[in-house]
Design brief:
about 20% strand; three-stranded antiparallel sheet; 6 strands; Nucleotide Exchange Factor Grpe, Chain A, domain 2; about 180 residues; 3 helices
């Protein structure tokens, strides 16, 4: 019987050792998983902080862009203002009306060239049918020489910028 008891003790000891090994292995696995979770958490927090910094940087860049978006155009307009001031000064000095008109025409041409370079174009009204998206009818008139809804006269030019109407043309429209 001593053999049998010894065998039972050995079996019990092996079972206890196996349980201890399994528990130790599970504890190691838990530690490993906890470390991995902590690494993922830290990585997530870093990425979140990076994204917040990126968002703040982009907001600042956008604010700067809005603040200085018109700078290029303003510089061109300042050149035109300088030319107008020179034209007025020269006209005051020489009292030559014809030279003043020529100078103003050159400056007007410069101004038109500047706005055209920025994507601004005139909305056509000559022999055109009234379009409420492009024109603002300020008066109507029956005319024998024009078709119904045709524009008779333009009171103020309209403009589009890069395809978007920024100021509709003020027109007189034929209504029969």
């Amino acid at each position: 019987m001593a053999d049998k008891e010894m065998k039972e003790e050995i079996v019990e000891e092996i079972i206890n050792d196996t349980d201890n090994i399994e528990i130790a292995s599970q504890e190691d696995e838990i530690k490993k998983l906890k470390t991995e979770v902590e690494d993922w958490k830290n990585s997530y927090l870093r990425k979140q902080a990076e994204f917040q910094n990126f968002t703040k940087r982009k907001e600042k860049e956008f604010d700067d862009l809005k603040a200085f978006a018109s700078e290029k155009v303003v510089i061109k307009v300042l050149d035109i203002i300088d030319n107008l001031e020179r034209a007025v000064a020269a006209a005051a000095e020489t009292r030559d009306f014809d030279s003043l008109v020529k100078g103003v025409e050159l400056i007007l041409s410069q101004m038109k060239s500047t706005v055209t370079s920025e994507g601004v174009e005139v909305i056509g009204t000559e022999k055109v049918t009234f379009d409420p998206h492009l024109h603002m009818a300020v008066s109507v008139e029956d005319s024998e020489n024009h078709a119904n809804d045709e524009i008779i006269a333009e009171f103020q030019k309209g403009y589009k910028m890069k395809g978007k109407v920024i100021r509709p043309s003020m027109v007189k429209v034929c209504k029969k």
